[in-house]
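Ticket #4471: complex job returned nothing on first submit. Input attached below:
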Amino acid sequence: MVRILELEEYAAKNNIPIMMKDGIEFLLDFIKDNEVTSILEIGSAIGYSAIRMALLNKNIRVTTIERDLERYNEAVKNIHDFNLEEQITIINDDAFNVELNQKFDLIFIDAAKSQYIKFFEKFKANLNCNGYIVSDNLNFHGLTKVDLKDLSRNVRGLVRKLNSYIEFLETNTEFSTTFYEIGDGVSVSKRKEDEMKKNAFTLIELLGVIVILAAVMLIAFPPILNQIQKSQGGVDEATKTIIINAAKLFVDQNDDEFKTVNGNIYCKSFDDLITSGLLTKGMISGSEDALDDKLIKISYNNGYVYEIVNTADCTSNTN
Ligand code: SAH
Ligand code: MG
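Support reply: We reran it on our side without changes. The output follows.
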């Protein structure tokens, strides 16, 4: 495309460090291969790489940040010329002032080399969980491989910074990085598998949690009917509520048996509730004898009334 060539010529003429040819080709292939559709770019310069990425596919959205006003203006003009305003959002600010809450499939770091670790740390929060962080210029035109003694002080400082970025990536516990000797040195970082697993419950873990919860429940709520106080022959309020709720469910489920005739009285044993699954054997272990002489008395009088009474105090009366 002629106009792409024009951008490349403009960059060469004006000393604007756009991506090298094989570097950008690598990046474009990577985007295609991995079906990346949302991209955050740190360092737009004149918009060259943002435009090339957006031209790949109409579904691709690029947010790109450029702090230099002159380059930003040039980029805005170029994005307009390519009719890509819909796909590319450009922000004129220092990336460290920009707060985004959106997440991206790919973050492309191509800005001040001394700040790469900080860019990485700041923007990894904006990366989708299986997204990629791509960094450019890790070779710094081959200088990261040169003996530091042979470099000017200024350049030495930058090379040191880039080398510590490389070490940061190599030793990162959260991301694993592959380095490519392409263009000016490109790296691709991806969240480690086990890091991703850490954040997601596996089914086994979920089952484990359920088992633990069940154990906690058993400790916190000992077999409820154990609480029937044999000596006083009474039942505490909480236990009563549980039994009566079970009895209400039982009535709901067997409404043909519990006719709504005033004066009717039904006597139900705890066994009836257990057989229907509304109370469990486990709940009454150790207190069977306490239940022997108790019944649930359900009387109908314009509504059901539920009581726990001694066996002798319940006589059924059904019409
Ligand atoms: N990605 C572009 C080239 C970017 S050159 C391309 O390949 O076409 C790097 C750009 O990053 C420069 O224009 C520089 O002004 C910008 N930059 C450097 N540090 C920055 C920062 N902290 N915030 C925003 N932009 C920054
Ligand atoms: Mg670059």
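The chain has twelve helices and ten strands. Closing as resolved unless it happens again.
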